[in-house]
Amino acid sequence: MTALAAIAGVGSALVAGFYAAFTFTVMPALRRRPAQDAAATMVSINEQAVRPPFMILFFGTALACAGALAEQAVNPGTDSPLRILGSVAYLAGWFATMAINVPLNGRLARSKIEWTEFDRSWSRANLLRAVLSAVGSIALLAPL
């Protein structure tokens, strides 16, 4: 395993854990609150998420996965279907975040979506990206 694949795998695992925490703790807790309170809390959480600690992890892992894919292409002797699968899985979750979760967060912040509709759509996409990130980490860190 290369250092780049290891970094991508660890980053993917950390991101998967972050998403899983939302699936199993944050969103169920918010569902127990009045809709207006839940929406306001989620907007506040989203504002905190776009700070360096998470952004470095989120974008840095995507960059490491892209680098791991490039490494596989440049060095055919190290070609590993698991490393390719892991990188692609994480990046698919990354794209889901950018295509689904981020726009939903924006709509919620602008009061352009009701809490129940937001929760249903956002939570499904969050579970998808958690699973993709977990698969990515497992495949990237698996011994060959």
Automatic annotation (TrEMBL):
Keywords: Membrane, Transmembrane, Transmembrane helix
Identification of the protein by name: DUF1772 domain-containing protein
Transmembrane segments: 6-30, 50-70, 82-104, 125-142
Species of the source: Arthrobacter ginkgonis
Pfam families cross-referenced by the UniProt entry: Anthrone_oxy
